[in-house]
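Weekly puzzle thread! Below is a chain. First person to post its structure in C-alpha cell form gets bragging rights.
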Amino acid sequence: MLLADDFFLIAHDDRTGRSRLSQRAVELGLAGAMLGELILEQRIMIEGARLRVIGHEPPPDPLAHTNLATMIAEPQHREVRTWLLFLGQTAVDAVGQRLARAGLVEQARVRRLLVSSTRWLAVDMNLPAGRVERLRRLLTVGEPMRVADTTLAGLTDATGLSRHVMWDRDPIGLKRLRQAITTLPPPLRDLILQVEQAVGDAVLSQRG
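Winning reply:
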C-alpha cells in the first residue's frame, strides 16, 4: 500500500466515501503523501520549506512518475507549499483513480438536492477500517514501525486525522505518535511540518 493510498482510505468513510476532514485538509494531506512517496523513492529532497529533485529515474508507480516529471519540468518552483497546493488540486481524483485501477475502490456519483458530486467507495468496506486499525495498533501496541508507517502517522496528525485513528485519545498512543515523528529523517519531518502549517493556514483563511 503506497503512502497516499493509505492516507486516502483512512481519510474517507468506509461506507459512504465521505471525507473525515475538510476538503482542503484532505487535498493537502494527499499532496503531502505523494511528496512523501517521492522522498521514500529518493527522487526528491525537502529541506525546510524548499524542495529539490535529486533523482531523475522514473519511479515504478505511474502517478509518482507523473508528479516527478512535472517537478523536473518546472525547476523554478521549489517551495514545498507551492507543490502542496498544486498537487492538492487533483489529489483526490488522482489517488482515487490509482486505487480504482488496483480494484480497491469504485467511483460513484452522489446527488443531494441540486448538487452532484463524485465519491470513491471501497469495494471491500473492511479495507479502510483495517488500515485505520493497523495504524492504531502500531501506535498503541508499540510494534516496530517502518519509515512509511511513521510518515503516514505524522501526516494524519498534521491534518487532524489522528483523532479518527486514535478515537479514544489514548495518551500512550498519542505519546508514541509524537515520539515516532521525531525519529523520521529530516526531509520527512520537514514535509510533515509543511503540511501541518498549510492545513493551519487553510483553516484560518476559511474562518476569515
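Puzzle host: Confirmed. Bonus trivia for everyone else. The chain has a mean pLDDT of 92.
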